[in-house]
Amino acid sequence: MVLQWSLFFMYICIKVTPTEASSWTAAVPSSVKGLLGSCVVIPCSYNYPEPQKSPQTFTGIWYNNDNQVICHSDASQTPAQFWSRTKLLGDLSKKNCSLMIDKLTRRDEGTFHFRIIMEAYTVFSYSKNKISVSVIDEPNPTDFSVQEEVKEGQTVSASCSVFHSCPTYPPSFHWSHSGEQHFQAQKLHDGQWKATSILMFRSNRTDHNKLLQCRVTYHGGKHQETSKTLKVQYAPVNVKVEYQSVNEGETAHLKCSSDANPVSSYEWHSETGALLNKGQTYTMSNVSRHSIESVYCTAVNEEGQDRSSTMKLNVLYPPDIRTSSKCFSEDDVVKCECIVESRPPSMVHFVLGDRVLQSTSIETVGSVTTGTLQTDFGSFKFVHCLANNTLGNANLTFLLPATDNMQNIFIASGAGVIVLIILIATGVGVVRKCRGRSGETPTSDLGTMKAERPVELPRYAPTKRKEDRKDMSCSDIYANDHLYGNTDCDESIYNNV
Ligand SMILES: *[C@@H]1O[C@H](CO)[C@@H](O)[C@H](O)[C@H]1NC(C)=O
Ligand SMILES: *[C@@H]1O[C@H](CO)[C@@H](O)[C@H](O)[C@H]1NC(C)=O
Ligand SMILES: *[C@@H]1O[C@H](CO)[C@@H](O)[C@H](O)[C@H]1NC(C)=O
Ligand SMILES: *[C@@H]1O[C@H](CO)[C@@H](O)[C@H](O)[C@H]1NC(C)=O
Ligand SMILES: *[C@@H]1O[C@H](CO)[C@@H](O)[C@H](O)[C@H]1NC(C)=O
C-alpha cells in the first residue's frame, strides 16, 4: 500500500518537476532535519496560475500527515499544542510559505504539506510537495580549525562551524580566547545552514600549550565544545643558571634553563665572553674560593636568543682566621677583634680561661665575619678566638696587651708611684732591701713596656746612673708583678706604703 502510494507520488513528481512559473507547485525540500528542542525552518515558496484579477487576501495552512492543522496564518485557528511553536515566517502575498516549528519534539517527526486559500480565487493543497521532518538528538560535530603552529606575534585565525536548520535563532559561539570575531551564515540545501565563527588574535607565548576552545550553544540550550592546543613558537626567555652551593675542592654542576619553544640549545661563556662549553650543563671541577670566574649561559632557538645574568659560584669553605686579627687597647679599653673568612659565615666566639664568651658585636661583610670582644680580661694573658661554620672550625690564640693593664695600674696607684719616687730619692734602705732580694728578677718585658710608659718615666730616668739600673727594674717589676706574680720587691713596697 505504502509502496503503491510512493510510486504514485514519484510518478506525480516526475510528471510535475519541470515547473513553469505559473503552475500549482510548491518548492520545498523533501526532507529537513531538526535538532531536538531547537527550531526547524522549512523554506517554502508556492506558485499558482495567475488569475485575471490578482488575489488580495491569502490564508496559509500547514497540515501534518494526519491532516491535522499545525499552523494557520490566523494564529487563533492553530491548535493549542502548536499555537506557540509554529509560525509562518514568509509573506504569503509574496508566495512565501516558509514555516518554523520551534521546541522540536520527537512527535513532530513526519510529513507536512501546505494549503493556500486565496479569497475570490481558489483553494489549493500542495499535497504533492510533501516535506518530511526528522528530529536528531544531538547536533553534528563541530568543525574546528586553527593553525598547528604559529610564531609569536603572528595572527592566529581559528574557525568553528556547525550545521543547523534554525536560521531564525542561529547558534551562538563563545571562544576561550579574546580576539576579533566574525560570524558567517551560509545557506545549504534541504533547510540546512552552516554557521561559522572566525576568531582572530595576535599569538603570544602565554598562549603556548593552552587550549583554544570553541563553545557552540544552539537555540533550545544544547551546546557542544571543541578545542585544540595552541602551539606558539617563541624565542627563549627566563634564561637562568641553576646550581647548588659546592664545597671547595669539589665539582660544581651548573645547569642552564630557559622558557622557549622549540627548546633552546645552550652555550656557556665566561664573564669576558669566551666560550666555555656547549650544552645544557657545565661542570667545574676542584672549585676554589679564589679561582672562580663568573659565567653566564646563552639560550638559542630558531626564534631568537637570550642570556642569563652573570653568576658566581657559591663555594663553601671552613673558617680561616685572618692573621690581622688582634687584641689592642683603645681609649684604655682592651678589644679583641677576630676576623674570619668563610662561607657560609661563621659563628665567632671567644674563650677566656674556661669561659666561652659571645662576641660583643659581630659584623658580616660578604664572606668576612668580624667578631669583637670587649670585656674585663682580668689578669688573663691569652684569649682564644673560635670560629665555626657547617664545614669546620678554626681557632687562634691572642696575647692580651699587657702594657695596657700596666698603664691602668700606674694610674690607679699614682699615689704609690709618688711615694716610690720619694723613696728612691730620699731613702736607700728600702731600695737596698729590694735590690738585695730581687737581684735576679727577669727584665725581659722592659723594652716594650717602656715604649708605652706614661710620661712619669723620664722624670726619674735622668737621675739614674748605670748602677741604678736595678732600682729602675725594681719599680718596673713592681708594675709588672700584677701580671706575672709576686716578688719580694712588691711585698716590700706594699709594706712601705
Ligand atoms: C521567505 O521568508 C523567509 C522569512 O522571512 C525568508 O528568510 C526567505 O528568504 C523567504 N524566501 C524567499 C524565497 O523569498
Ligand atoms: C604577550 O602578552 C603579554 C601580557 O599578556 C604582553 O605583555 C606581551 O607584550 C605580549 N607579547 C606579544 C609579542 O604580543
Ligand atoms: C685543586 O686545586 C688546588 C688549588 O686550587 C690544588 O692545590 C689541588 O691540587 C687541586 N686538586 C686536584 C684534585 O686537582
Ligand atoms: C658552631 O658550634 C656551636 C657549638 O659547638 C654549635 O652550637 C653551632 O651550631 C655551630 N655553628 C655552626 C654554624 O655549625
Ligand atoms: C684549635 O685548633 C687546633 C688545630 O688547629 C685543634 O687541635 C684544637 O683542638 C683547637 N682548639 C679548640 C679549643 O678548638
Automatic annotation (TrEMBL):
It is a single-pass membrane protein. PROSITE patterns: IG_LIKE (PS50835). It is found in: Membrane. SUPFAM superfamilies: Immunoglobulin (SSF48726). Residues 1-21 form the signal peptide. Pfam families: C2-set_2, Ig_2, V-set. This is Si:dkey-238d18.5.
